[in-house]
Amino acid sequence: MAAGVLASGGIVTTNITNPAVASAQSDIYLGTTEMPTDITLFIHKRSKGELGGDRDTGLPKSDPGGEKLVATFSVQKITEIDLSTNDGWKKAEQLSKKFDSTNNQTAVQSITKAGYTLGSGSSIKTDRGYVHDHKTGTGETTEAGTGTGSAKFGRGLYLVTETETPTGYKGDVKPFIITLPITNPVNTTRWLNEVHVHPKNQREELGATKTVKDSDAIINGQNIQYTLDQPLVPGPTYDGIVLVDHYPADRLEFLTDPAPEVKIQYDDGSGTEEVVLEADKHYTVTNKAEEGKNEGKVVVKFTSAGLGQVYEILLDENINVSMKLNFKVKPNQPAETSPIENKYKTWTHRREEPAEDPTKPPVVDPPTEGTENPETPPTGTPPNPYPYPRSFYGNVDIIKKDASGAKLTGAEFDLFVCTDVNTLTTKLNKTAIVANDGVEIRGLLANDYRDDKVVPEANQTSYCLKETKAPEDHELLAEPIIFKVERDKTDPTIVPVLEKTIVNTKGNGGFNLPMTGGKGVFMLLLAGLGFLVLGRGYSARFNRRRP
């Protein structure tokens, strides 16, 4: 076997199969002919690229690639294995077959289960900024971090675990076991008294979130606002950021006034700071709603200047890119019961190689096909909890009847937000609501669900209809009619059309008033005159008959 074990769930020999790599590395460092008692372990911490790299050999890499990172490692000696003996190396190889590198806990358990114990260990932190010259064996501490940390250890077998993960990166570096020293894989007549490993972490790109503020958009024609937040973490320079709002064009109309707002938010230690970006300078906005289609999209794409702003702030802090868009709520279709659902997709891209000027990075365009295309609407079953904000707008059909059940027409109403029939607050209609056949109110915000969350009943408002004109021969309503628009009790993903039946009483409560004045008096006078004429005629006839 090769005199050197790097175990990550199994045995890994230090043989190099690439002659070009072997030649390049042999020029850097050869090691010693005698097995050293003091060995320096160098940990070079970098970000993981798009493709996996070669397995470590113990030799340094002239260009390990990736971004230099800060992390902390624990190095613990497996005390019962003595690498100064052949038996110790055999035990090391046997342990490699039992070693479980799933995570730090399973690594320790597999070692102890095999009958070995771990020493207290030492820490290596990779932000010390130590630059080492492998040809001269000397080094110096610099102000610029190199993503490298090192420490000296005695001869032995060691468990190495990452205990502090770089900010903004996944803790995906598996624990590994390393032999100190290792046989030089290029020149197998020598030992390496300087051993190098290059564990890499995958960037943790945080998912975007979207929220809605619809509590101020009570009825169709009013404005609703969406906020899309995309967290960004330190790492290689971003050279592409695209935020896309996928909105239902049959329910919403994109507004340029108020204009979209894009800003960078970060915490400076004393609170949240904001940098408002300028349209056209830092980003472009394109509305791509197509006539006759129900799908619209607003595409916000960062320019080189905008990406430069991201770079400068991201050097020191995690940041959040926030985009606010405003839409006007369109009237519902008469039979509409579904909510307004606003989806989104984001796309970010980083440069694996540093930009010549990271404050002005060249802009990379997103893919134009496939699921990675941010302009392609999201498909498939969405994750749980549901990621897209919903706004529920219902329809109201006012049905006017008399006491017998006969339909009435011609009544007019004003619509108010209210807490009870005596407390009317905001008037919602601009013109009179006329109660005729069909749905009269199309698109009224549900009382039980606002700003994408359930409203407790105690906090709900109501709506009130105040009659301003009664049907002919009927009385005005004495007080407003109060009601609520609510989601369906059995299927809370819809808002049924609310049919509100309102009964009007006949004039004077159905009682006849006395007939006084006008036409009634004339008829009485006419009747009286008739009696007088008849009386005179009877009197004259009676007088003629008298002798």
Strand-helix topology:
Blueprint: E1 6-7, H1 19-26, E2 38-44, E3 46-47, E4 72-77, H2 86-96, H3 104-113, E5 122-125, E6 130-133, E7 138-141, E8 148-154, E9 156-164, E10 176-180, E11 182-183, E12 191-192, E13 194-197, E14 200-201, E15 209-213, E16 223-232, E17 238-248, E18 252-254, E19 261-267, E20 272-276, E21 283-287, E22 295-302, H4 304-314, E23 319-329, E24 340-341, E25 343-350, E26 390-391, E27 393-401, E28 411-420, E29 423-427, E30 433-435, E31 441-445, E32 449-450, E33 453-454, E34 462-469, E35 481-483, E36 498-503, H5 519-545
Parallel strand pairs: 2-13, 3-14, 27-36
Antiparallel strand pairs: 1-10, 2-8, 4-5, 4-9, 6-7, 9-10, 11-12, 15-16, 16-23, 17-22, 17-25, 18-23, 19-20, 19-23, 21-22, 24-26, 27-31, 28-29, 28-30, 28-34, 32-33, 34-35
